[in-house]
Amino acid sequence: MSGPAHFEELRAGNLGVRIASTEWEVRAAQALRYRVFYGEMGARADAETAASGLDADEFDTVADHLLVLDHDRGEGPESVVGTYRLIRREAAARIGRFYSAAEYEIGPILAFPGEILELGRSCTDAAYRTRGTLQLLWGGIAAYVFRHGIALMFGCASLPGTDLEENAALLSYLHHHHLAPEALRPRALAARYVPMERLPRGAYDAKAALLALPPLIKGYLRLGGFVGDGAVLDQQFNTTDVCVVVKTDQVTEKYYRHYERKAGARG
């Protein structure tokens, strides 16, 4: 964590979103991640992880943790129903690297002149996988981006499973339609590089592929996001990863207008 809350909690009925400010909140986020990644998605836990019931690593110590809370469930760990891990340039510098650097050559992103933000470890409790919860998470990201002057966001986003044949149309669609411009294009590390162009153009239904993408990736694309060159198979987490890059101008414009309208309506 990097200090106190960065913006006031944003509320939508019983749900709120804010930055974790205590150790128990971070542990609650790690416990939620464990339940989703290891309990549902088939990630493979080592003995220490399984014993702790937490998805935790060294990046958690420097990150800010965005939380979605359901206040109807109480005000303790049980209230944490969604989370997103946020790592700024200065935070990554404290341990010498970004998480994504284990999968991608991110030199073009590091060379970007403005403030950058790595997004990762996003998940929500099964009962809260709704459009409203996702919008609240994005609203929290927009508030954070605005508060810290973030110009570029990036991170590894996942397709479920490691079956390249099953994900062939989705990977090909992303490569053909959303490849990042060369000046901003991360590339999968040579030892982990998996070509994304699994099928030629016209050999798959592009509209169906777009609709089949995970909601998080579709959200990035709606904001004008791009993907890097090459996918990476993450055997531990049972996912096929792509590197997403998003300039934040659309994020701040779209979501701050939304919250300004709501504030205006309240008078």
If you had to describe this structure to a student in words, what would you say it looks like?
The protein is built from nine helices and eleven strands. The strands form two sheets. Strands 1, 2, 3, 4, 6, 7, 9, 10 and 11 form a nine-stranded mixed sheet that branches. The longest helix is centred in the N-terminal third of the chain and has 18 residues, at 23-40. The chain has a domain at 85-265: Aminopeptidase (3-Layer(aba) Sandwich), CATH 3.40.630. The model is unreliable at 1-5 (pLDDT under 50). By secondary structure, it is of the alpha+beta class. The chain has helices at residues 23-40, 47-52, 89-95, 107-110, 131-148, 168-178, 206-212, 215-222, 249-265, and strands at residues 10-12, 15-19, 64-70, 80-88, 104-105, 115-124, 150-160, 187-188, 226-227, 232-234, 239-247. 40% of the residues are buried.
Number of DSSP strands?
Answer: 11
CATH topology of the domain at 85-265: Aminopeptidase
How large, in whole angstroms, is the Cα Rg?
18 Å
Approximate strand percentage:
15-25%
Detail the poorly predicted runs.
1-5
What is the approximate shape? globular
Q: Number of helical runs?
A: 9
Instruction: Give the rounded overall mean pLDDT.
Output: 92
How does the helix and strand content classify structurally? Answer: alpha+beta
Report the biggest beta sheet as strand number plus sense, adding barrel if it closes: 9 strands, mixed
- The CATH level-2 architecture of the domain at 85-265 is identified as 3-Layer(aba) Sandwich
